[in-house]
Amino acid sequence: MSQARTLNDVAKIANVSPSTVSRILNGTAVVSSDKRKSVEDAIASLGYRPNVMAQALAKGRSMIIGVVTQAISSPFYGETFVGIEQGLANSGYHPMFISGHWRADEEREAVDILTARRSDAIIILGGNLEDEYILKMAKSLPIVTVGRSVEGLERQSIYISQEDGAMLGMRHLLELGHRKIAHLAGPSTHRDSIERLTGYKAALAEFGIAYDPDLVLEGNFQERGGLLAAELLLSRRADFTAIFAANDQTAMGARLALFRRGIRVPEDMSLVGFDDLFAAGYTTPPLTTVRQPGEDMGAAAAAMVLNLLEGHLQKPTTLTPSLILRESTSRLRFS
Amino acid sequence: MSQARTLNDVAKIANVSPSTVSRILNGTAVVSSDKRKSVEDAIASLGYRPNVMAQALAKGRSMIIGVVTQAISSPFYGETFVGIEQGLANSGYHPMFISGHWRADEEREAVDILTARRSDAIIILGGNLEDEYILKMAKSLPIVTVGRSVEGLERQSIYISQEDGAMLGMRHLLELGHRKIAHLAGPSTHRDSIERLTGYKAALAEFGIAYDPDLVLEGNFQERGGLLAAELLLSRRADFTAIFAANDQTAMGARLALFRRGIRVPEDMSLVGFDDLFAAGYTTPPLTTVRQPGEDMGAAAAAMVLNLLEGHLQKPTTLTPSLILRESTSRLRFS
DNA sequence: CCAACTCTTGACAGCGCTTTCAACATCTGA
DNA sequence: TCAGATGTTGAAAGCGCTGTCAAGAGTTGG
Predict the structure, then answer these.
(1) Where are the beta strands (DSSP E) in B189-328?
(2) Is the distance from CB of B167 to CB of B203 less than 8 angstroms?
(3) CB count, 10 Å around CB of B138?
(4) pLDDT at A264 over 80
């Protein structure tokens, strides 16, 4: 294991002081062109790369943006990761992802790890961290939340109205004539689930339809939960004509349940998802869904963090959901 | 922004020297229980957390495992990330993911970023980095490759035979009686594609079937590539009865092409994928596919890295692909 | 021609921690 | 009782870098 070169090695070879090398590296001051030349030569010949850890210590900035996420393999957050990555590109900052698995304790541990590494800022994606906890952290560190709001920190969050999104999906179904619409909800502990359920009810009310709690079942935002919930529902009643799933993964699970029973989509049953995962465009049939622009959210979060690090507080960023019309819904037919 | 406490603050409050605090933190030496107590109290009351950056500088170990990946949102590598995360849990090391997007130059840049941060080891997931480049790095740093082999570094890689995997999928199709089997390959620049194509041909040969290059089209390992390739193929000929896709995403794209033309799966066309993405169990119909245990691969890579860091070279780890039988294939019917 | 500047440069302290070394305090056993 | 062993602690140097400060060289203008 060969030793990495240090700034001192460079200084020695170039016959200048370490300070000068540092100045050239950081552009902190004017340096005569002959010294600059010899330093650059020395750097090239040694293949020298500054030790970011040491820079971090000296400058008091780690150049790390901590990202507390829920699952590193989540298809939805995956798109957000891409946005964050790109938004941070060429800023000198780098993201460090730690997963919290939707458990407040693990999320707190993630934050611990990140602060132990002296992250310069933290982006929190969803999760169940307590508001007070986040507020306290926000006092000592720039924080941006995505997909969840924190009272008193509205200006540091990227937010999409889940309720509006749900209404978009539901109105579409209602306008197609559906009246008995089931909802496969997310976990009831999850704010997004709650908001989407609220949107479901609001749309129903808008069309003067009574809310029927029997038509709502709880899943877990995963395919399997959607499958199970749909099977259960199907075994109990058969009078509904459309399903509004709490997210695309749930919709895909439901799709399988329908397939198993030979119920055709969209001829016999209309199906609407939420998120617009990349895969939603490739289900059979392609899934009509409410789009959340995951990548844009990530990019916006990155931009906001960068702003915050420069001391600028920007106005709250609100992105909007939109309906992506594909082929899993059809006008209600009277059979 | 309140200042973070330092080890010195703790020392002062506890009335001991910084060395003693450090010893307690690291368990480096025996410390009398009264001092230990007062130090622990001081740590608790200050909410002190050691600065990992400073520890890194002093110890010469960053406790970062760099992970060069191709896309942070990749569904296949996502599972590997999970394995890495878990394999590294409680080791004190943390992964740092940087994406290379299958471009050697970006991958080299990723490595640069990682070495500038003095990663203690690097895990390379797939990619197009030149063998020599990796070999050179391996001299100064523990390196583990996943899903790609490097000549001379076999003992530091987690490998799955793509050829064997392809043969598994193909034999299944052949045993079902299919004789005209199309292959939607991955990018020809990609080693996995090449190996899988080799397996495709080998299986054909095994069954005494002539290789027909017209039945092979190149995709890009993405849904869209699969869709396009399948559409093109379908527009050119209709005499094949099965498709062996280079990966699940390609298969899903092909599935959509078939759906568009009203070709039923598996009645009219059998379809086999590769990878066994989580989503493969929820396509319509659920996809028969060759499984690569992504999470196990990640866990194995993490374990290998940890071993390497302790100076142990283990024997090459070879995991094996397996066939996951679902519902997208059926026995050839004479129509 | 010299005071007053302006540039460029190096010495040095310090970021927060680890680790070696030596000092001091105790404890053994002969 | 004392030499030697053992245990616990602090001082200080150093990890690789930045940033302040001051010195020395070179300019300018009255």
Answers:
(1) 216-218, 242-245, 270-275, 288-291, 317-319, 322-324
(2) yes
(3) 18
(4) yes
Which of A50, A62, A75 is the closest to B116 by Cβ? A50
B325, B280 contact by CB (below 8 A) = no
With both helix axes pointing from N to C terminus, report the angle between A223-236 and A248-260 in degrees, rounded to the nearest 10: 50
Q: Which residue is nearest to nucleotide D13 (CA to C1')?
A: B58
Pairing of strands B94-99, B242-245: unpaired
Alpha-carbon gap, residue A53 to A68, rounded angstroms: 21
B52–A1 CB contact, under 8 Å: no
What pLDDT digit, counting tens, does each position of B85-112 carry? Answer: 999 999 999 999 999 999 999 999 999 9
The alpha carbons of chain A give a radius of gyration, in whole angstroms, of: 26
Cα torsion B305, B308, B310, B312: sign:
positive
pLDDT at A314: 82
Name which of A53, A57, A115 to mutate to probe chain B: the one with the most chain B Cβ atoms within 10 A of its Cβ. A53
**Cα–Cα distance, A202 to A166 (Å, whole number):** 9
Determine the length of chain B. 335
Q: How far apart are CA B269 and CA B330, in angstroms?
A: 8
Report the C-alpha gap between B222 and B190 in whole angstroms: 13
